[in-house]
Amino acid sequence: MAMDYPVHFRCPISMEVMQDPVTISTGVTYERKNIEKWFFSCNKKTCPTTMQSINNFEITPNHTLKRLILSWQKEEAARSRDSLKHDELVSLLAAMESTSFKVSSLKNLRAIVELGHEVMHDFIKCGGVDILVQIIAQILFESFDFAAFRACEEALGILHLCLSLPDHEKIVQFLSMPESIKSFAMILQRGSAEARFHAVAVFRELAQADYNWDKFVIQDQGFELFRSLLEIVSDDQICSKASASALELLIDILGTSKRSRLKAVEAGAVCNLIELLPDSNPSKSEKMLLLLKLLCECAEGRQAFVEHGLGIAAISKKLLHVSSANTKITVKILWLICSYHPSERVLEEMLTVGSVNKLLALLHIGNRSSTKEKVVRIFKLHGNLWRQYPCFPCEFKDYLELC
User: Fold this and answer.
1) Residues of the chain with pLDDT under 70
2) Strands annotated E in 24-163
3) Which are the contacts of 254, defined by CB distance < 8 A and separation ≥ 6?
């Protein structure tokens, strides 16, 4: 598409847009090669526009006008591209429902949306989000259709891109519809690594928008949701980003919905986290310990914890290691176990794996804190049992006021 240049960007001699504008003594600007030909080849001694006689044939580059022309050309080229992309965008969306090649069309659509926020806004104005949400919901009825599932994954990838917009609240509203939530849960179970990451990211956006998880988790697919998230957490090879995001999503859900913790326990969350904890890196350790703390705040979670043979040993390994945050959370877990499930086996295990010695050492570190107060209360509850063992230091008897 040809550009319609402003008249003052055109050389008065050739009427073509100027590339090297220069100004003569009369104040009129021309293309350099044209005015030089007028003066020096044709031996003219007048201004071509005003026909004034000229004695001074000096020419001065008009840098300001040149910059204006280049800037205008750049803006017009961008506008032209945007117009073409808009037309292509509208065409793709209009044909999306009827096309037999949805995956290919969605890939083309994604390539356009990836161009930037302006195109994303245009996509939203054209009703793109609604169309993609309908495609995603299709897998609820065509779950065994490979093409439908791939189309759903591609549509989710585009919506994930749009979540980068600062004002994406309306998109989140579309994604929080029951059909969308169920579709995302299916992608978590069976999707590709990239699609699972996108699904987790969408769920995290919902969590940050204060989505009410109780209905979905309790009444719908809560068990399968937690199983899928735990599988992603367990397998870094699926996607390391998805694994870290899945942990954060679990914290979001369990932190705001106490009723969901029972479903997570039923899905094996306590056992999975205990087995992953010993070999986890510092960042993941803290998140896993926080999840275990949340789960141990309900009776079913504590029961699952004490029934696992490695529970006490796994969290004790993190006590006084990695970070003060890890230590604080670990003490809270031990406090919950010692307060509500103080069986003789559990208390003996705490001595055997070194939990008691680490708790004693913690009393010598730092100033008075809520964490140290919990440690003191643990010893006041069970110190009389532990002090019967040779490994319990006698000098702590008076310090802890054990009688």
Assistant:
1) 1-3, 80-84, 143, 218-220, 236-239, 322, 391-403
2) 29-31, 60-61
3) 260, 261, 264, 291, 294, 295
- 171 forms beta bridges with none
Query: How many Å apart are CA 241 and CA 232, to the nearest integer?
Result: 10
List the structure tokens of 142.
């065509």
Query: Burial level of 130, CB count in 10 A (0-12/13-18/19+)?
Result: exposed
β-pair partners for 21 = 31
Q: Are 175 and 187 contacting, i.e. CB atoms less than 8 angstroms apart?
A: no
Q: List pLDDT tens digits, range 245-288.
A: 999 999 999 988 888 899 999 999 999 999 999 988 888 899 99
3-state secondary structure of 17: strand
CA dist 272 to 148, 234, 269, 355, 399, Å? 32, 8, 5, 21, 38
Closest CA to 356 of 322, 321, 316, 324: 316
Residue 136: which of 198, 193, 91, 227 has the closest Cα?
198
* Element (DSSP H or E) covering residue 384: helix 370-386
**Kind and range of the H or E element at 21?**
strand 21-23
Q: For residues 152 and 155, what is the distance between their CA atoms, to the nearest angstrom?
A: 5
- Indicate the SS3 state at residue 29: strand
Nearest-CA neighbor of 289 among 257, 253, 314?
314
State the CB neighbour count (10 A cutoff) for residue 115.
13
Instruction: Say how far apart CA 286 and CA 280 lie, in whole Å.
Output: 9
Q: Which amino acid is at 33?
A: K
